[in-house]
Specification:
The protein is an alpha+beta fold. It has 11 helices and 32 strands.
């Protein structure tokens, strides 16, 4: 076993000693009358663990300032560390890196008796965290948040230090999977990371780091489900869990206020299920429903539950949770939002951009959602991992339906150990996103090797596990295995399939697309008697490459391939089982280095810099036409450029 593999095993083993408390809630930090939130985003000290991947553990770097262990550089958080610097060894580093940052904990926090939590939005792939030399957190699986109460480890009114060790190694039992390969170089042996998935394995502290405070007894978690009656009464079923211990004889009470989207108190009634008011039903007269974008004139309508937890002798805790009232139903032929058939028109995407990699960036998120709405899409899949909570907030508010995918991609070599991590990733994802109206499906995998016989029992276990956590949303997956050999579809509620006709199969021959897509989709439905949608199709195009007649990699070819798919989709829509189309991809993105990728995957309809290719304008016409035809949305005035006034006649004198 190499030193890096030994190090990766060490990172996992520590989880037996320190966990992030999987039974606790993971509510997003929000300021209130009782809570303070302090961001630790900014510049952190950073260094690679070289030449020995274990040197940081051997020399106990967590016991002192990282700058005293050797040379450090300044690294922005949040961001991937790979592309920030112009240093190839940082970009291609395999194994451990170290971060640290100093901060003050206000003395007022101690005086007010606050609990203080440390929360990471995401660290990829595995992390260990020390506060003032004390190991407080360990987390494996990127793209998901983790936190811990660190009150006992802080020095109030003084300078404190957080140290983080980050490991990006992927193995056969990580989610996603990978392997290490030893190669010979001019300067000696070297270990490199290999993986089969088609996106770059960015690493680092990808999302915001927060300190937040709560009272001694606090709101730890909230579960919400919604419904509505025929006479327009909105129903919000809620259940609240609290953390902390009550003193002997101390009483607890929970009260709820409902605010509308203008932050004004709404008319409502509460029917509590218990004396403390920790669970019950909220009824809202003439409720406004949460609708997807372009299915209603006011999409993404959000209420706010203002939850107040009061105790006899402690400070009240107040937490405000955004909530959308909507229902999801599905049959063997349809997918319905608020009892209306919904047709998904959207994308596969990636968290990916220049310099910051997978780092959360509000300007980029704002641009992306503006483009999604400009193009007329109403949905996307979080391929191939959970996206940042801030990104999901935008989806809630703008009415964008989300197929929420866990980090399982190209799953193979099925084992009990892998199954445990796979289900753990889904448990953490569902705990995080369970209350979001935008999340309309759970995707349990992307392109697994579902023709292997072990896939049957493996995915049966995964599907059953997800249903125990959430039976109100359908389960799907993006299947690339051939229909005749696939063993996954039988365990899903809705079939998603990926197929690249005229690209990976018979490139250049767009004349094969329509019949093949129509035939395959119909066979998926016939085999499983479930709704079907296409989760990936597309072609690479190099922006600015124009060729007539069309030729692979040209913008014209990408448009032609799309049109042939559109013909198939329109035929399938008449069959009453086909519920959506998602092109691959929203924007170009970075991959590992390979001769089949020119600076990354170029299947985006937008460039990596979010500029439109010809295909973006073509897709815009398609998606807006669908919105107009299916949901009565009014076409934007600039959907077509002016050419001629067809009503005006020329005056010709003879």
């Amino acid at each position: 076993m190499s030193a890096i593999m030994w190090c990766a095993s060490l990172m996992v083993c520590v989880s037996a000693l320190v966990t992030c408390g999987n039974t606790a809630g993971i509510l997003y930090p929000r300021e209130s009358e009782s809570r303070e939130v302090k961001s630790l985003d900014g510049m952190w000290n950073f260094r690679l663990s070289l030449p020995d991947p274990l040197v940081g553990f051997k020399e106990r770097w967590y016991m002192k300032d990282l700058s005293k262990t050797g040379p450090v550089i300044q690294m922005p958080v949040p961001s991937s560390y790979n592309d920030v610097m112009v240093d190839k060894k940082i970009r291609d580093h395999v194994g451990l890196v170290w971060y640290d940052k100093s901060f003050f904990a206000p003395e007022s926090w101690r005086q007010q008796g606050y609990r203080v939590f440390l929360r990471f939005g995401s660290v990829n792939y595995a992390a260990q965290v020390w506060v003032n030399t004390h190991l407080v957190l360990n987390h494996e699986i990127g793209h998901l948040p983790f936190q811990r109460d660190i009150t006992a480890n802080l020095k109030f009114g003084r300078l404190n230090r957080i140290t983080v060790a980050v490991d990006n190694v992927l193995l056969a039992t990580t989610v996603p999977q990978g392997s290490l390969q030893n190669i010979s170089t001019n300067t000696g042996p070297k270990t490199i990371q290999t993986y089969t998935f088609d996106f770059f394995n960015y690493a680092g502290i990808h999302r915001s780091v927060f300190l937040y405070t709560t009272p001694i007894v606090y709101i730890d978690d909230v579960d919400v489900t919604t419904n509505y009656t025929e006479d327009g009464v909105g129903l919000i079923n809620y259940k609240i869990q609290y953390g902390g211990s009550l003193s002997s004889g101390e009483m607890l009470n929970c009260s709820i206020t409902v605010l509308n989207n203008e932050n004004v108190r709404e008319k409502f009634t509460v029917i509590a299920n218990d004396e403390e008011g920790l669970s019950g039903i909220i009824k809202i007269e003439n409720a406004k429903l949460w609708w997807p974008y372009l299915m209603h004139e006011e999409p993404g309508y959000m209420y706010t539950l203002e939850i107040r937890l009061s105790t006899t002798w402690n400070v009240d805790d107040v937490y405000r949770l955004p909530v959308g009232i909507r229902t999801i139903k599905w049959t063997n032929t349809a997918f319905l939002i608020n009892n209306k058939p919904a047709y998904l028109r959207g994308f596969g995407r990636h968290e990916d951009s220049d310099i910051r990699g997978k780092g959360m960036d509000y300007a980029l998120v704002t641009r992306d959602y503006d483009l999604i709405k400009w193009i007329g899409a109403n949905s996307y899949r979080t391929s191939h991992y959970p996206y940042a909570e801030e990104i999901m907030d935008f989806a809630d508010r703008h009415g964008i339906m989300i197929v929420d995918e866990c980090p399982s991609v190209d799953t193979d070599n099925f084992s009990d150990k892998l199954l445990k991590k796979h289900t753990t990733s889904l448990a953490e994802l569902i705990k995080r996103d369970k209350n979001r109206p935008s999340v309309v499906m759970w995707s349990i995998a992307n392109e697994p090797r579902s023709h292997h016989k072990e896939a049957d029992s493996y995915f049966k276990s995964v599907a059953i596990f997800v249903k125990t956590l959430d039976g109100l949303r359908p389960i799907t997956a993006a299947i690339a295995t051939e229909l005749d050999t696939d063993l996954l579809g039988q365990h899903l509620d809705i079939i998603g399939f990926n197929r690249y006709n005229a690209w990976y199969t018979l490139p250049g021959h767009t004349e094969i697309i329509q019949s093949r897509i129509e035939d395959e989709a119909a066979k998926w439905h016939a085999k499983h008697n479930k709704p079907v949608f296409m989760t990936e199709y597309g072609a690479d195009s190099y922006a600015g490459l124009h060729m007539s007649p069309s030729f692979v990699w040209s913008e014209e070819y990408q448009v032609e391939l799309m049109s042939e798919h559109f013909k198939a989709f329109d035929t399938l829509r008449t069959k009453n089982f086909f519920i959506g189309e998602m092109i691959w991809n929203f924007a170009d993105f970075k991959t590992e280095q390979t001769v089949t990728r020119v600076g990354g995957n170029k299947k985006g309809v937008f460039t990596r810099q979010r500029e439109p290719k010809s295909s973006a304008y073509h897709l815009r016409k398609r998606y807006w036409a669908l919105a107009n035809q299916l949901d009565g949305a009014q076409l934007p005035c600039n959907i077509k450029s002016y050419v001629i006034d067809s009503n005006r006649q020329n005056n010709v004198e003879l």
